[in-house]
Amino acid sequence: MNPRRIYAVVLRQIFLYRRSFTRVLDVFYWPTVDLLLWGFITLYLERESQGINPYASFFLGGLILWNILLRAQQGISVSFLEDIWARNLINLFVSPLKVSEYLAGLLCISIIKVSLAFLVMAGIAGACFGFAIFKMGLWLLFFVLNLCAMGWAIGLVTMACILCFGQEAEILAWALSFLFLPVSAVFYPVEVLPHFLQKIAAFVPAAYVFEGMRAVILKQELSISLLEKAFLLNACYLALGLAIFYRVYKVSLARGSIPKIGE
Amino acid sequence: MEHILEVKDLSKNFNSFWALKNISFTLCPGEILGIVGPNGAGKTTLINCLLGLITPSSGKIIYFGLELWQNRSKVLAKVNFASNYVGLPLSLNLYENLLVYAHLYGVSQAKEKIAYLLKLFGLYEIRQKPTRHLSSGQMTRLTLAKALLNDPSILLLDEPTAGLDPEIAEHTRKLLRDLSKKQQTAIIITSHNLPEIERFADRILMLKKGQIKAIGTKEELLAKFKSKNLEELYFKAVL
User: Fold this and answer.
1) For an interface test with B, which of A7, A22, A94, A108 has the most B Cβ atoms less than 10 Å from its Cβ?
2) Which of A5, A20, A87 sits opposite B86 (nearest CB)?
3) What is the ipTM of this complex?
4) Rg for chain A (alpha carbons), in Å?
5) Which residue does chain A place closest to B14, by CA atoms?
6) pLDDT tens digits for range B84-108
7) Which positions in chain B touch A7 (Cβ < 8 Å)?
8) How far is CA A137 from the centre of its chain?
9) Mean pLDDT of B177-197
């Protein structure tokens, strides 16, 4: 992989964001609105339950971590869409840029977007609601890594769908992650789900992360097996996501559909 | 002379429709090959195959002695492309767009090279302008500047002067011809503008329904088809 070409992919997005107030706003606006909304709801719930349950920690922790997954996924799939909207994909694909370098560039952009959104949300949660997410310590790093990995796996599948079906599939860039929200146990434990959904949740890495998060908040401890399962599933899904994307890319080359994307 | 591009028996089939069939030709350094043909003749499919955007059903594309699909990145570093139908990101300014592509093509002394190309195409004064505010002529010149960033050995141009006023179109043709002769840059150009191809290309390739109907210098083709000019030849060979 050539670092300069990866840098070029990142630089293109940095230039894009530097010139677009609405895109910058998008990085901060929704996380801030979400956080304030849920923050006040949890304040109300805590007051009603007279502080018995740490709702603020559960909800705000869940919300911040869920946003990591969401931003990681959108970080790659929306950046890919930006190149389609700009009709820039052809210029990129006829340059020496390798697909692996393009994906690496998108991952870097995703990490930047995740970091910005995370810092803003963590800052607001601490300043307005007294929730210190960094108290989770080293566990937080493992949670973030797993959620990013799951977000990237979903992002790769989203990109494959866009390559395969064209811009009609672009809605998936915003919607696909939400398909996993009910079974990710972000705001409630897996045990409240109906039995068949619990079985599905067993295959969702995020469910183990959020169960882990609640265990850390309540007991300051965590069963390593939860993280092991999450890492294992994510490794499988990332490999699967990459395989699907490369397969669809090859099929698109054979079908001659890449020059037509965005028309 | 040594060939820098060899296309051997290139065919492309889309669901039993032959977009290209047994296309073979070669290209020498500094040579300009004009591709003409009616809509649907396979010009764009051929260019897309040469750029690695479409995998051929059979046949080989060999640049600089290297098979394209096995040496894609290495080959494409020495090739470039400009089309009037493929833009550059509109939110970025001219300088930013060229800087991104300078990094992609590994251009050394990128800032100096970009400044030189912007001046060459009369765009230097508006280098900080967002690309969305360019006229179509300015956009065409910007895509040409992008195409020359890496001093390509082979330049593929799809209707490069469409949208340019006659004066700038002539200036651009002269510039490309000078480039071809001085730097030995080979050029493959598609155009519907027959007089342009007639004056600009060293050899002409005529396509019809995915097959080569004629290839050669203007003089060779005129003699072969007993025609007075390229227009008459075009009607005899292609239509």
Assistant:
1) A94
2) A87
3) 0.89
4) 19
5) A255
6) 778 888 889 999 999 999 999 999 9
7) 103
8) 21
9) 87
Q: Do A256 and B146 touch (CB under 8 A)?
A: no
Pairwise CB contact (< 8 Å): A11 & B103: yes
**Going edge to edge, which strands form the sheet with B32-36?**
B79-83, B154-158, B186-190, B32-36, B203-208, B211-217
Q: To the nearest whole number, what is the mean pLDDT of chain B?
A: 89
B146 touches chain A (CB under 8 A): yes
- Whether residue B48 lies within 8 A of chain A, CB to CB, comes out as yes
Q: Which CATH number fits domain B1-78+186-239: 3.40.50.300, 3.30.450.20, 3.30.540.10, 3.90.870.10?
A: 3.40.50.300
Reported confidence tier of residue A51, pLDDT bands at 50, 70, 90? low
| Beta-carbon separation of B87 and A87 below 8 A | yes
Amino acid at A99: V
> Nearest-CA neighbor of B205 among B27, B5, B17, B56?
B27
Domain coordinates of chain A in residue numbers?
Answer: 3-260
A96–B86 C-beta distance less than 8 A: no
Q: Where are the alpha helices (DSSP H) in B148-211?
A: 166-183, 194-200
Measuring CA to CA, how many Å separate B42 from each of A41, B38, B45?
62, 9, 5
Taking the alpha carbons at both ends of chain B, their separation in whole angstroms is 33
CB contact under 8 A, B89 and A88: yes
- To which residue do tokens 């993280």 refer? A227
Quick: pLDDT tens for A69-91: 999 999 899 999 988 888 888 99
pLDDT of B27 > 90? The answer is yes
Per the CB < 8 A criterion, the answer to whether B144 and B72 are in contact is no
* CB-based contact, B163 to chain A, within 8 Å: no
pLDDT at B1: 62
Q: What angle do CA B85, B88, B93 make, to 5 degrees?
A: 140
How do residues A195-224 score in pLDDT, each as one tens digit?
Answer: 999 999 999 999 999 999 988 888 877 788
Which pLDDT belongs to residue A201? 93
